[in-house]
Every structure is written in structure tokens, then in C-alpha cells.
Amino acid sequence: MSSDVEYSPLPAEGSGSGVHDFWLYVWMRRFSVIASHVIALGLTLLISLLSRPGTSLFSWHPVCMSFAYCLCLTEGVLLFSAEGSPFCFKSRQGKVRLHWFLQTLLLVASTTGATFIVASKNVSDLPHLASWHSLLGVGTLSSTLFQLAAGLCLLFPKCIRLPVSPQRLKLYHATCGLLVYLLATATVVSAMFSDWFSATVRGAAWWAFLLLPLFPAAVVMNQITNAYLPRKKISS
Predict the structure, then answer these.
(1) What angle separates helix 19-51 from helix 214-228, to the nearest 10 degrees?
(2) Which of 68, 77, 87, 203 could form a disulfide with 109 if both were Cys (CB 3.0 to 4.6 A apart)?
(3) Nearest to 5 by CA among 172, 217, 178
(4) Is the pLDDT reported for residue 194 higher than 60?
(5) Following DSSP, what letter does each residue of 163-218 receive, concatenated?
(6) Residue-wise over 81-96: b if at least 16 C-beta within 10 A, else e?
């Protein structure tokens, strides 16, 4: 079934403000995607080092959650980018399979991380859901499960029949995926205000950790909106 939705394309070379602006635009997008890969990996490694995994039950929570949402979720979206992705050589089907592999890792890691924080609070006799970070975390986990369920409908369209066209379902999946990513970013940022992180990181380094997750979020938002944002159809 044909769709009336047109998607925002990359500006055509030689049009608009000229070839120079076109290539500047392309290289800026490429740099931003590469920088997002570096930030996603760097944040995961730094948070894991700061957590000192194995020293307590709690120490595994930041490790698992940073791996799940800073790395797996980011890479699961950016692998579909045409600029600066190490998986740009793969076919669309190969990218979809890798996307599902990363989302499976995300589910395992996030569930494990949630289990560790629940166990840690039970051992320490601390209340659950007593901070904005914990509330945002529950919302992120819930929306992640919902998004994975929606992805199954795309993966097995013949087994799970819905009264929605595949094109519309892809649009909904991408839009909900963006909401999950922004919610996950808010959860990560809120973790910087926790007692543990505030006591571990101080000064300019704290501000750097606070701002770094926002850059990949902006890149992911730009990628999804450019690919799926409906525009008004131009009549000839």
C-alpha cells in the first residue's frame, strides 16, 4: 500500500547554497556520528571503572546499565546511519540482525542491572523508588520492553498480524525508539546527581559527565527525524 508520507532527504549536491555547503554538511554529520560512537564507548568504560565492579552488589548496577543504554542502545540506532558507522558496509538485512543482537544484549544487561540494584537495596534495607533516577529507570525499562515487543511485530509480520501497514509500523517503531532513547538519556543524566556519583566525581569532570550523554542523544534524534519525519507533500 502506498504511503502519502515523504521523508526528509539529504540535501542534494550542487543545490541550495552550493557544493561547498553540501560537503561541509556531510562532514559535520560524519564527525558527529563518529564522535557519538566514541562518547558511547568512553562513557561505558569510564562509568565501569568508577563503579569498581565486584566491590559490592551496587557496583554492578552502573556497569550493566551503562553497557545497556550508553553503548548497546546507541550503537543499535547508529548502525543504520550512512555517515561514520563502522557497519555501513553491511546490507540492510545484516544491520537488522545486528540491531536485534544489540537489543538482546540491552535487555539482558538492563535486566541484570535492575536485579543488582534491587538486591543491593534489599540487603542495605533502603527504600525502593525513592528518587527521580529510580522512577525514570522504571519508566525506561518499561518502555524498552514495550519497544522490543513492537520490534517483534516488524521482525515477524506474518506471525503477528496488525491492522497497520509495514511502513506505518516502521514509523511508529522509530518514533517510539527515539522516545526510549531520550528517556534513557534522562535516566543516565539523573544518575549524575546520585549520592554515589556526586561523591565519586567532582568539579569540571562532573560537568563533563553531565553533558556528554546529550551529544549522542542529539545525533540520534537528528538521524531518526531526518529519516522518518513526515513533511508536507509538494504538489507539482
Answers:
(1) 130
(2) 68
(3) 172
(4) yes
(5) SS-HHHHHHHHHHHHHHHHHHHHHHHHHHTTSHHHHHHS-HHHHHHHHHTTHHHHH
(6) bebbbeeeeeeeeebb
Checking if the pLDDT of 18 tops 90, the result is no
**DSSP character at residue 82:** S
124 backbone φψ class: left, alpha, beta (φ>0; ψ -120 to 50): alpha
Report the distance separating Cα 67 and Cα 85, nearest Å.
Answer: 19
Average pLDDT of the residues of the chain = 86
Amino acid identity of residue 104, one-letter, is T
DSSP labels for 22-49?
HHHHHHHHHHHHHHHHHHHHHHHHHHHH
Quick one: pLDDT at residue 28? 84
Cell, residue 37: 560512537
CA 21, CA 27: separation in Å to the nearest integer? 10
Structure-block grid coordinates of residue 136: 525514570
**What would the pLDDT profile of 152-191 be if each residue is shown by its tens digit?**
888 887 777 777 777 788 888 888 999 999 999 999 999 9
Neighbours of 165 (CB within 10 A): 12
Q: What is the mean pLDDT of residues 74-92?
A: 81
CA gap 175, 95 in Å, rounded: 19
Distance (Å, whole) CA 232 – CA 229:
10
pTM equals 0.85
Q: What is the pLDDT of residue 87?
A: 67
